[in-house]
Every structure is written in C-alpha cells, then in structure tokens.
Design brief:
This protein is mainly β. The chain contains 1 helix and 8 strands, in the order E-E-E-E-E-E-E-E-H. Helix content is 14%, strand content 39%. It is globular.
Length: 137
C-alpha cells in the first residue's frame, strides 16, 4: 500500500467564491492583448486564481495572460494589470464551461493590497457565517 501525503502545499491562503457572479475578471492574451475575455473567478490567492469561461478560446497550459480587471459584487474593483500564466486547463465535451488555473507573476503592490484585503474580508465573513458584499437582513 502506498502512503499518500494530503498536506496542503499552497504557499498562500486561498478563498472560494460561490456562483458565477461573486467575483468577475477580464483578461487578454499577453502576446496580442487584442481580444478581451470575461470570466468568473472561483478561488483566489496572492499566488493566482481559478476561473471559468463560457467558451474554449484556444487556450493552452503555459500561455501568458494579462489580468486587466477584477470586480467583486459589492462594487470593489481592481484594474491593475497583472501578468499570469495558465498552469492547468480542465474541459470536457458536454461541459458548458472551460476551467483554468492561473499563476500570478510579479504581483504589483496595488493588486497585492486589493487581493489581500478581499481575502481577509472573505475569511472573516466565512468564519462569521456571512457572505461579504451582501446585505444581511
């Protein structure tokens, strides 16, 4: 029997988002930058993000992208450009979405501060059983 190590190897705290509308992003290919793509963000950390698109886009693992915008549903927006690399892609015939994991490269200070604040707010809200950006009523 082989021993499996299930310890967390992530360097950064990661937070998860529900639905397709909680956190949205806009990005372009680093090489051309011409075509803009909109995607839902499913999780985020200072190391990168996991997103999904409604179309294939012809992406491959290793492609360089430029993150142009992150927009949280409560109106918080970060428009600092961030270079990122596609680390993995998951797509299956019959699935309506393409999923990609992207790693940030040289996260600028402004984007680092925005992501850090969002991660902290999301962690506090999750611990309190709330969803940040939504009115409690």
């Amino acid at each position: 029997m082989t021993a499996t190590d299930y310890t967390e190897r992530r360097q950064f705290v990661r937070v998860y988002f529900d639905g397709l509308d909680e956190l949205q992003c806009r990005f372009a290919r680093a090489a051309t930058g011409a075509e803009r793509h909109e995607a839902a963000v499913h999780d985020l950390s200072l190391g990168g993000l996991h997103l999904s698109l409604e179309h294939d886009g012809g992406f491959s693992a290793g492609d360089r992208l430029v993150l142009l915008r992150l927009a949280y549903r409560n109106g918080q927006v970060c428009e600092t450009r961030v270079t990122m690399e596609i680390r993995w892609i998951f797509a299956r015939p019959g699935f309506s979405r393409l999923y990609m994991g992207c790693q940030f490269h040289d996260l600028p200070d402004a984007a680092r501060a925005w992501v850090t604040a969002l991660v902290k707010a999301k962690e506090r809200a999750t611990a309190a059983g709330q969803t940040p950006g939504r009115e409690q009523g």
